[in-house]
Amino acid sequence: MSEPAFRILVVEDETLVALLLEELLVTLGCEVVGPVPTLDEGLERAGAGGFDAALLDVNLGGQRSHPIAELLAARGKPFAYATGYGSYGVRDEDLERPLLLKPFTRKELAKVVDELKALCAGA
């Protein structure tokens, strides 16, 4: 019997990036929850649970994803940020979290997924 897929909540407002993330995550053996494109939907999904970790775009249509990050941190759920701006926009308390820089490669995404899995294993 195989182990269940690693479930990742994807919060990303750019449709093409969300589709690429979904496709690559599936090839990495993950199950994608979402993707969801807005702060409100991200908060709703994060609150509902049903995932192991999350990948958050820092900027969601001009709104920061910080409220989702706060909710995830309070619940002890590992998450990583995805951004095209380096660490700019990442909350100070989250600077040690995994960071996926856009544009990204499959190898870079795989590294972030491995980091998230390790955080889940250590939780």
CATH topology: Rossmann fold
Poorly predicted segments: none
Whole-number mean pLDDT: 94
CATH architecture type? 3-Layer(aba) Sandwich
In terms of DSSP E residues, the strand content is 15-25%
Q: What's the SSE pattern?
A: EHEHEEEHEEH
How many distinct beta strands?
A: 7
- Overall geometry: globular
Determine the number of helices (DSSP H or I, runs of at least 4 residues).
Answer: 4
Q: Percentage of helical residues?
A: 25-40%
Nearest-angstrom radius of gyration? 13 Å
> How would you sum up the major sheet?
5 strands, parallel
CATH class identity:
Alpha Beta
Number of domains: 1
How many angstroms does the end-to-end distance come to? 24 Å
Query: How are the strands of the largest sheet arranged?
Result: 2-1-3-6-7
What's the helix and strand layout?
Layout: E1 6-11, H1 15-27, E2 30-36, H2 39-48, E3 53-57, E4 59-60, E5 63-64, H3 66-74, E6 79-83, E7 99-101, H4 106-122
Parallel strand pairs: 1-2, 1-3, 3-6, 6-7
Antiparallel strand pairs: 4-5
Summarize the model shown.
The protein has helices at residues 15-27, 39-48, 66-74, 106-122, and strands spanning 6-11, 30-36, 53-57, 59-60, 63-64, 79-83, 99-101. It has 123 residues and is α/β, with parallel strands linked by helices.
